[in-house]
Amino acid sequence: MSSRLDTVQFICDQAGLGARLTFRRMFGEYALYLDGKVVALVCDDQLFLKPTPEGRALLGAVPEGSPYPGCRPFLMLAAELDDPERLSAALDITARALPVAKAKAKAKAKAKAKKIAPKPASSNKARRGAASKGALRSPEPQ
Q1: In the chain, which ranges are continuous DSSP H helix?
Q2: Residue 64: beta bridge partners?
């Protein structure tokens, strides 16, 4: 069962973090990003917070569960959805505890190739240059 968009929007509104908190649909579910870092997942309309020592210290004993089969356990937040300050603090402290995302190797290679690759000559410029030299004139009638 996939999550509903209105559930994700409700969670984002409850957190009150404005434009800092964004989401992206992934495999029928959603990832929540705070300041560009994935801090939580919304799967089956449930909020799963990435586990960090700081998040555990703030939240205390919360149930754990896997957002999808084969995934390591995340912190399951339910009561926090009714407490916007606690939800906001949990997301914020988790984002601060997570490392800065590394640039993807593919993006780095693409940027490097873009800097090195020579600019191709425009075919329109070549035609205009040849036309001005008389190379593309039509033959004169006899």
Answers
A1: 5-15, 53-59, 84-97, 105-116, 123-132
A2: 75
Q: Which amino acid is at 92?
A: D
Compute the distance between CA of residue 73 and CA of residue 94 in angstroms, rounded to an integer.
15
CATH topology of domain 5-97: Yope Regulator; Chain: A, (3.30.1460)
Q: Give the number of other CB atoms < 10 A from CB of residue 119.
A: 5
Count of all residues that appear for the chain in the document: 142
| All residues at 6 or more sequence positions from 69 whose CB lies less than 8 Å from its CB, including other chains | none
Structure tokens at 102: 């590394």
**Torsion over CA: 32, 37, 39, 41 (sign):** positive
Delimit the domains of the chain by residue range. Answer: 5-97
13-48 pLDDT, tens digit each: 999 988 999 999 988 899 999 988 999 999 998 999
